[in-house]
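Good morning N.,

You mentioned wanting to compare the apo and holo forms, so I went ahead and generated the holo version with flavin-adenine dinucleotide. This is what I fed in:
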Amino acid sequence: MSATGALVTMAIDGREVRVSAGISVAAAMLDAGVIAFRRSVNGSDRGPLCGMGVCYECRVTIDDVAHRRACLVMVADGLRVSTHACRPERSEGPA
Amino acid sequence: MERREQVLRFAQDDRFDILVIGGGPAGIAAAARAAECGLNVLLLDEGADVGGQIWRRRTGSLARGAARAWFTRLEASGATVIRGASVVDAARRADGGFTVTAERAAGALLVDAGVIVLATGARERFLPFPGWTLPGVIGVGAAQALLKGGASFRGKRVVIAGSGPLLLPVASALAADGASVRLVAEQARSRDVGRFALGLWRHPATLVQAARYRAGFVGTPYTLGTWVTAARGNGRVEEVDVTNGRTTRTIACDLLSAAFGLVPNTELARLLGCDRTDGMVWVNHDQQTSQAGVYCAGEPTGIGGVELSLAEGEIAGLCSAGHPGDARALLPRRDRLRRDAATMDRAFTLRPELRTLAHADTIVCRCEDVTLGAIKADWRMRQAKLYTRAGMGACQGRICSSALEFLHGWEADTTRLPVEPTLYSTLTAEPATSAPSANHGA
Ligand SMILES: Cc1cc2nc3c(=O)[nH]c(=O)nc-3n(C[C@H](O)[C@H](O)[C@H](O)COP(=O)(O)OP(=O)(O)OC[C@H]3O[C@@H](n4cnc5c(N)ncnc54)[C@H](O)[C@@H]3O)c2cc1C
Ligand code: FES
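and this is what came out, ligand included:
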């Protein structure tokens, strides 16, 4: 629970979840049981490695902006995240 | 959240005397001390909040102790703070000052400053071994960072295997969160390890105590001279192999925390042409680098923990503000902490066996999926990039180049622009003549 105990509603691959306000998108996704955040160039699943913005393994699409680092973005009411599972056509590498 | 493409530039008369890049303990101390001298100071950090690695906290939660005192002091100092801004470029102008480009979710930010203080901190060193790319294999500090970011590890079976003084504090933090820590394995075997593991890098006492009362942690073995050799699982980590060189055993787990100490973030320093020694940014007595007008404080000058970062940050803040005399009193403390840091470094020296963990088919560059076998040991990083694209992906070699430096003894390649993956719109940002006033917060 965050200091205020407030909850926000966000969507992960279209699924609505209620999470504590003030947590990172990566934390919310892990708590929601998401294992694979992105798919590597050879097609294997990847999840967060560094937790601090360095490795880019936690890249997801947030509110239609691709390649955002889930570990650096905070949850917000109405925020929409999609993993590769929802993005069959996506380009690899930095935008 | 609607995405706005927008370039912010501070108006010419809003030019900052001092720009501090990185808002960890070093950057906070530097910005506060410099602003207290009456200078116009800007602090940029790419995180959602300032605090860096150790003072990272969940948005809205209260800081305690030293962290709280420094947050308060920073706020009172009058320094401008912008969060969520990643500095991607820094260049010297003809007049000797600097123009710095930062990227934010809302668009690019261009800043003019007379002096730069680099306080970009450190990251964890990851070494490749079979299975290290499986989801559920994360860093050691990474587990702590995710925990502080609000993730829960309750009920998870965790193995921690790596090196450095972070292993035990992270183990106790995870245990306090309800994780079942199965093993804490430190690769080093030196007599000094215990001293640093248990003493020097203090963790909030309450957390440690809370953890001690948990059977899960009290029963946790902490072994020296033991390291991970492989992780396996179907789509995620399910078990890991650890060895002491004689016997290897397999442990079932949901999470493996594996990182091998810290490496300094020196990309911006290299971009600005600052000299380095042994991979660390060289600084003089006043924390000034080999480049006039560029100071550096905290982990980029050497890994030494929060107290050293604070001392260096204060000195850099005072000296960059033109008050070196006021910094004199801080020098003995800094120098003593530096000597401790050197002892610590020796205690956690990485064993040579760690160079043999990755096989030919083990991925080294995770961004481009380049295997160890595709990279020739007698190359340099530059050739690896050209021939295999290793180090050319999103992380710009931050993970694989420190691994390859250790595996093959390579030097990091010269930094190319931009230092972080950048939106095209940021790079092509045309500075507007005048601009909105400084926008506090992301
Ligand atoms: C994950 C982790 C956990 C740690 N835990 C402990 C601990 O428990 N105890 C301890 O004593 N030490 C710990 N350390 C060591 C720790 O780094 C130092 O003690 C202390 O945080 C160092 O302060 P610093 O200001 O030098 O660097 P940091 O705290 O790393 O701060 C650097 C800041 O710079 C920012 N930054 C970097 N590059 C850019 C850029 N290009 N643009 C904008 N901003 C940028 C980062 O967002 C970060 O906030 C930890 C380190 C890591 C990596
Ligand atoms: S987990 Fe490494 S960048 Fe987010």
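The radius of gyration of chain A is 13 Å.

Happy to go through it together on a call whenever suits you.

Best,
F.
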